[in-house]
Amino acid sequence: MRTSAAPNSDALDAGSAPYQSSRFSRYDASPELGVEYEAARVHNASRRDGGIWPLTARAQQQPKVPTIGFLGAGTSSVWSQWTAAFVQRLRELGWVEGRTVTIEYRWAEGRPERYIRLKVDVIATVGSAVPATMQVTSTIPIVFAIAVDPFGTGLVASLAKPGGNVTGLSTQTVELPGKRIELLRAVLPDLHRLAVLANISYPGAVHEAAEVKAVAQKLDIEIEMLEIRRAEDIAPAFEKLKSGVQAIYVCPDALINTNIARINILALGARLPTIHAFREFLGTGGLMSYGAKNTDLFRRAADLVDKILKGAKPADLPVEQPTTFELVVNLTTARALGITIPEAFLLRADEVIE
User: Fold this and answer.
1) Would you call 167 helix, strand, or coil by DSSP?
2) Cβ atoms 88, 104 nearer than 8 A
3) How far apart are CA 214 and CA 176, in angstroms?
4) What is the pLDDT, as a whole number, of residue 111?
5) Strands 51-54, 45-48: parallel, antiparallel or unpaired by DSSP?
6) Confidence bin at 298 (pLDDT 50/70/90)
7) Which neighbouring-strand residues pair with 20?
């Protein structure tokens, strides 16, 4: 499938507020947010057996509308497609925002320490935000839509039996780093030096970087690590790039997510192609992505939230793993970098952006 290049999304404005939140009927960013769902006041009265009975008692017997805390690790603009998929799936399951369920949105913009306490029935987020969330609560169910290594990073006791109050979907697979390097080599046959950009304060990114190194060593590819811990480290990391680096492997996490436009712009300025895990990271100049379709993962996360709202326990819900992956190529970026993508390679792609 070929699509037109999307406008660059603004993933750089972190804002000055300690934590951004908003109240909106669906998933668009909005300047205001309420905190609680209020049932409509009942002003009528009913006659029964010749007397007037206020309907207050009847109103109090109505079932409580559950609240979902949606904790976005990045910004609302970067997450818009994923949030939309989550909300749409909830609607299909009968959870209509503002009617049968309330959703409280919070945006950490790559800084999970911004999370605050929410009085909710279940929390939906991603793996990089779970550790900070677990520090706030050990009882409220937590569902992550994406996590690189939920077992290795201690989010769950095991994939089959998570235990505790956390479950979700894992994108971990030992084949993915090798597959991405294989795809890079198909476009750059003489690839022998690869930079790896990773937030080393996130265990999942550290784990993925280690897997990339292991695969590269077998292929005689030299690895140069670009280690970051905060947004301010990104530009200096690019300035330290050694000559001879031919491409950049980007390990995803909340910090990368929030600053993806800056990363892609710096890579283009250095005339270096990038490979990403998510299709959404290509709109600002990434070359290609290979990984699970995140909108599908967020829909599955909504399924898990549905089960929990209906009484299931996270400890009893196995962590799921994707079975299908998509290859997306940004032909506009390839042309800008002077890279010729073989037609046979383009035919393999699930989507070509041009």
Assistant:
1) strand
2) no
3) 12
4) 62
5) antiparallel
6) very high
7) 107
Per-residue pLDDT, 73: 80
Which residue's structure tokens are 């990368």? 256
Amino acid at 207: H
Question: What pLDDT does 87 receive?
Answer: 98
In the DSSP assignment, the letter for residue 281 is G
Average of per-residue pLDDT values in the chain: 83
| 3-state secondary structure labels for all residues of the chain | CEECCCCCCCCCCCCCCCCEEECCCCCCCCCCCCCCCCCCCCCCEEEECCEEEECHHHHHCCCCCCEEEEEECCCCCCCHHHHHHHHHHHHHCCCCECCCEEEEEEECCCCHHHCCCCCCCEEEECHHHHHHHHHHCCCCCEEECCCCCCCCCCCCCCCCCCCCCEEEECCCCCHHHHHHHHHHHHHCCCCCEEEEEEECCCHHHHHHHHHHHHHHHHCCCEEEEEEECCHHHHHHHHHCCCCCCCEEEECCCHHHHHCHHHHHHHHHHCCCCEEECCHHHCCCCCCEEEECCHHHHHHHHHHHHHHHHCCCCHHHCCCECCCCCEEEEEHHHHHHHCCCCCHHHHHHCCEEEC
Q: What is the pTM of this model?
A: 0.76
Summarised one tens digit per residue, pLDDT across range 146-177 is 988 899 888 999 999 999 999 999 987 668 99
State the pLDDT at residue 132. 83
Q: What residue ranges define each of the domains in the chain, with the CATH number in brackets?
A: 2-168 (3.40.50.2300), 175-291+324-353 (3.40.50.2300)
Q: What is the pLDDT of residue 34?
A: 32
Element housing 255 (H / E): helix 254-258
* Mean pLDDT along residues 19-39: 34
- What's the pLDDT score for residue 128? 82
Query: In this predicted structure, what is the pLDDT of residue 24?
Result: 35
Residue 289, both tokens? 């992505």
CA 244 from chain center: how many Å? 32
